[in-house]
Amino acid sequence: MTSTPTAPAPLLPAPHDSGCPFAPPPAYTEAARAASVTRAGLLDGSSCWLVTGYPEVRTVLSDRRFSADARRPEFPVLIPGRRELIAANPSFLRLDDPEHARLRRMVTGDFLVKRVEAMRPGIQQIVDEAVDRMAAAGSPADLVARYALPVPSLVICLLLGVPYEDRQLFQDLSRVLISTTADEAQVGRAQQELLDYLGGLAAQKRHRPGDDILSRLVAREDLSLREIASTGLLLLVAGHETTANMIALSTLLLLRHPEQAARLADPAAVPGAVEELLRLLTIVHTGLPRVALEDVELGGTLIRAGEGVIAMLSTANRDEELFRAPGGRPADELDVDRDARRHVAFGFGVHQCLGQPLARAELQIALATLFRRLPGLRLASPDAEPAVRPDSLITGLRELPVAW
How far apart are CA 326 and CA 315, in angstroms? Predict the structure, then answer.
């Protein structure tokens, strides 16, 4: 057992200095090559453990000896100044059981596979109408603004009970919340404004309820308005930001591999293709933070109680032993026929993404429909560098000019 890594400690969050939006920042892949568990520095001067190996990441995310409670003083925070903001209004994503389980099960029913499957015709209609609008506006177009962002925004608005006409407000505030460059005051204002907005919306639904999540939450007597607003904030931000970025990045990657994009014409191939895109892209490149509650040996390294840990989903999802395709294609290349079902893009354990059935359905419908309806789809500027959002905790594109 050792607690002294041999590789230089990377500084987190690592910048996307490679210019490639499809791969983790080089600092993470270099650390992964050196060891499955290595020491890393944080911008506030503290340190933590960077966990990059697949089995070790799954252990961190499923073992109750690692806490997701952001209120713990040792909890690793990637951006200086955010600790108090995170701890003041933690969603269930940043709580341990039993608090986590109590809040999560309030909304679990809305994201069950059976419920999402019943939503597919409605999602298909939203997607078709988005393609219609983009086609009517003419070629070329920015796929992010015209398609990738509107589709999941409208879906989550309908599910939550948020007026779609307010989309500019929550989209702008969401970008501040996931920004790596916004200062503490800016993030605090954005968080409070979004909490106030959702709290006010929930209060209105006490008198005028609808068939939506906020209405069902506000009808309960065991939830405070603050808990409802915090839950709504998590679902709203995660429900459109992650899927929007996945649609745009997946389209870019498929357009660079037209022979694999052609596989989407087979409906039976679409679910597997989406799992491969989720695995390879893993847009939360910054990892998931935890803190050890007791001494734990992990990957031959002793992690002591009170030490912070960052579980790197992106490097775990490129495990060569697990994900090398039967034909020999390595794990860091796209292969839509690869069996990628064991990926951890949605996390793992009790905190894994609640909305993954919805995200899968949206991606399957949005990507298959786009390539079917616009068979001549291509990059408007194929030699241009991707317009990666450099200041975001979630990897994505500012724009994606396409033509057809």
Answer: 20
pLDDT at position 306, please?
97
Identify whether the C-beta of residue 104 lies closer than 8 Å to the C-beta of residue 227: no
Start-to-end CA span in the chain (Å): 57
Do residues 338 and 257 make contact, with C-beta atoms less than 8 angstroms apart?
A: no
The whole-angstrom separation of Cα 305 and Cα 362 is: 40
Strands annotated E in 80-231: 141-142
> If you count them, how many residues does the chain have?
404
pTM flag (> 0.85): yes
> Computed from CA positions of residues 37, 41, 43, 46, in that sequence, does the dihedral angle turn out positive or negative?
positive
Please answer whether residues 330 and 324 qualify as being in contact, where contact means their C-beta atoms are separated by less than 8 angstroms.
Answer: yes
Token pair 């988005």 is found at 130
Q: Classify burial at 303, counting beta carbons within 10 Å of its beta carbon; exposed 0-12, middle 13-18, buried 19 or more.
A: buried
Dihedral angle sign, alpha carbons of residues 161, 167, 171, 172: negative
Go through the domains of the chain in sequence order and give each one's CATH number: 11-403 (1.10.630.10)
Quote the tokens at residue 129.
């109408």
Q: Please, what is the angle between helix 167-177 and helix 150-160, to 10°? A: 100
At 7 the pLDDT is 52
DSSP 348-390: -GGGS-TTHHHHHHHHHHHHHHHHHH-TT-EESSTTSPPEE-T
Cα separation, 350 vs 288, whole angstroms? 13
Q: Who contacts 201 (Cβ-Cβ below 8 Å, separation ≥6)? A: 161, 162, 214, 232
What average pLDDT does this structure show over 251-275? Answer: 97
Comparing C-alpha atoms, which of 22, 23, 79, 28 is closest to residue 50? 28
